[in-house]
Structures are given as structure tokens and as C-alpha cells.
Write a structure and sequence with these properties.
Blueprint (H helix, E strand, L loop, with lengths): L10 H25 L2 H8 L3 H8 L2 H25 L4 H16 L2 H12 L5 H28 L8 H21 L8 H17 L6
Helix pairs in contact: 1-2, 1-6, 4-5, 4-6, 4-7, 5-8, 5-9, 6-7, 7-8, 8-9
Protein name: TetR/AcrR family transcriptional regulator
InterPro entries: Homeodomain-like_sf (IPR009057), HTH-type_TetR-like_transc_reg (IPR050109), HTH_TetR (IPR001647), Tet_transcr_reg_TetR-rel_C_sf (IPR036271), TetR_C_Proteobacteria (IPR039536)
Organism: Stenotrophomonas mori
């Protein structure tokens, strides 16, 4: 999927672009991808359609920019896991709490909603988000599990499979609940507590004596 058009904007114009993105998150979360119109965003954000088109090209380009920003924020929190000197139990809990916080941001929620709802009609957007917003997380987790296994702090035979299992166990249900509107940012403490519990279940298993 091509990036949004490169534009030369003055400082005021750059602020306007960020305002478009902030308002677009609100409008997409309220009306969905199909129901949202660019004119709705401009009306609420101010500015003009010509500025929006110049910055993003079209609605798909605007969504692409939203996803880019969400991915950047999400990745920054997770990269701290590879740099953590803490034991895996604590390091994974800390990383999970950071990821939960990002998953419950309006930008990530709208990205997940569009990814799931529009995947069939927007396959390029779907595949781009998976390649840049999901797969890198799995690779980073796999690298971490492999490193900690080599160091003797974990015992994982298949780091790739473990990364997928960890992601789905710790975050899969939260993503679904946030997409459906059952969970939002106001539930962050409960969601983080649940993530910490899921990390411990992943590490210790559910059988007695483990």
C-alpha cells in the first residue's frame, strides 16, 4: 500500500494535519469507515477539503496515516521489552501493561475496527496493517523468547508459535472487546490486571505442580 502523499507544509499546516487525524479518529469511531465522510471531519476540525486531500489523498490515505501513527506508538512501548534487564515474568508483565494501554487508545481501537470490518473490501489496507502493525509485534516477541531461552531464563521450543500464543492469550480478547465497544480507556486498570494474570498463566501453565 503506497504511503500518503508527501507534502510541504508550514508549521500551521502541520498542526492542521494533526488536527485532521485527531478528529478523524473521533468520526471513524462514531460512524465507522463507511459512514464517515471527509466533509464531516473537515467540518469538525476546521480547515478545508483541499488541505485534507493534499495531505492524505483520500479517505484510504487518511486511514493509512491513522494506522501509521498507532503503529509507531505501539512499537515504541514494545521495543522496551528487548532492552529490559528484568526477569521474564516482570518484563513481560510490564510490556503487556504498556501494550494494553496502547490497545485501548482511540487510535488503536479505530485501526482494529477498520482492519476487521473492512478487511474484505479493503484487502490492501488489511494486509498493510497486518504486515506493519501485527506481524512486527509477533517477530519482536519471538526474538525475545528465543533470547531468553538461550539465556536459560525460559524454556520455549518454538518461539514463533509462542509469540502467536502469547499475543492471542494476553491481548486477543481485549482487542475483540474494544472493537465491540465493551471495553475502553476507562477500563485500563482492570484490563492491565487481566493482562498480568494472562502473562502468568502463559508462563506457568494451568496444571498443578508446574
Amino acid at each position: 500500500m503506497p504511503p500518503r502523499p508527501a507534502v510541504e507544509l508550514q508549521r500551521r499546516g502541520e498542526r492542521r494535519v494533526e488536527r485532521f487525524l485527531d478528529v478523524a479518529i473521533e468520526v471513524f469511531n462514531e460512524k465507522g469507515y463507511q459512514g464517515a465522510r471527509l466533509s464531516d471531519i473537515v467540518k469538525r476540525a476546521g480547515g478545508s477539503l483541499s488541505t485534507l486531500y493534499r495531505a492524505f489523498g483520500d479517505k484510504e490515505g487518511l486511514v493509512h496515516a491513522l494506522m501509521e501513527r498507532s503503529i509507531r506508538d505501539f512499537g515504541q512501548g514494545l521495543e522496551e521489552l528487548l532492552q529490559s534487564p528484568l526477569p521474564p515474568a516482570q518484563a513481560l508483565e510490564d510490556a503487556a501493561c504498556r501494550m494494553v494501554e496502547e490497545i485501548l487508545t482511540p487510535a488503536r481501537i479505530v485501526s482494529h475496527r477498520i482492519f476487521t470490518a473492512e478487511g474484505m473490501s479493503q484487502p490492501a489496507l488489511r494486509d498493510w496493517f497486518h504486515a506493519h502493525g501485527i506481524r512486527p509485534v509477533e517477530i519482536l516477541l519471538s526474538d525475545y523468547f528465543a533470547r531468553e531461552t538461550r539465556a536459560g531464563r525460559l524454556a520455549i521450543d518454538d518461539p514463533d508459535a509462542a509469540a502467536d500464543q502469547f499475543y492471542m492469550l494476553v491481548f486477543g480478547g481485549l482487542v475483540i472487546r474494544s472493537i465491540s465497544g465493551r471495553v475502553g480507556g476507562e477500563h485500563l486498570p482492570q484490563a492491565q490486571a487481566r493482562a498480568r494474570s494472562a502473562v502468568q498463566l502463559f508462563l506457568k501453565g494451568a496444571l498443578p505442580g508446574r
